């Protein structure tokens, strides 16, 4: 009976491993497995060209993994993927420019405003409840407002 390490004695084991990692990257996108798959594929090609022992193949694979992941991270840092909606997960930034209603008077620069169906803390010029204010910024979850 052949164990799973024995399969890697042959270059086909590395190439199959690379293909499985490539399929996993497509099924579970995370832009990480593709670099490990590349390292496995290159290891398989090296094992095809030069007969190597299993421990040497693992050392080559480990080194290529480090190089591939490092290179991939550098490439993505230099070529960032632009989002179609860069404010998707930044709710406070999405509110900038919105005109909202003061629900607790802004007194001494602090009050509460209604945004949709929720109430947020705010900072801004004094204003009575019912006033309309415009969101001009945010500090964590505290909205900065001005009179609209």
What is shown here, in short?
With 148 residues, this protein is of the alpha+beta class. It has helices at residues 4-7, 11-27, 33-49, 54-78, 91-94; strands spanning 99-107, 110-115, 118-123, 132-139, 142-147. The chain has a 5-stranded mixed barrel.
Task: Based on the model shown, name its key terms.
148 residues; alpha+beta; 2 domains; five-stranded mixed β-barrel
Could you please describe the fold and organization of this structure?
The protein is an alpha+beta fold and 148 residues long. The chain has 2 domains: 4-78, no CATH class; 91-147, Nucleic acid-binding proteins (OB fold (Dihydrolipoamide Acetyltransferase, E2P), Beta Barrel). Helix content is 45%, strand content 24%. It has 5 helices and 5 strands. The protein has helices at residues 4-7, 11-27, 33-49, 54-78, 91-94, and strands spanning 99-107, 110-115, 118-123, 132-139, 142-147. A 5-stranded mixed barrel has the order 1-2-3-5-4. It is rod-shaped and about 80 Å long. The N and C termini lie far apart (78 Å). The model has no long low-confidence stretch (mean pLDDT 88).
As for the number of domains, it is 2
Q: Mean pLDDT, rounded to whole units?
A: 88
Order of the strands making up the biggest sheet: 1-2-3-5-4
Quantity of strands, as a count: 5
The number of helical segments is 5
| Structural class by SSE content | alpha+beta
Low-confidence stretches: none
Give the fraction of residues assigned to helices: 40-55%
Taken from the alpha-carbon principal axes, the silhouette is rod-shaped
Instruction: Give me the strand/helix succession.
Output: HHHHHEEEEE
Largest sheet: 5 strands, mixed, barrel
Distance between the termini: 78 Å
Beta fraction of the residues?
A: 15-25%
Q: Round the Cα radius of gyration to an integer and report it.
A: 28 Å
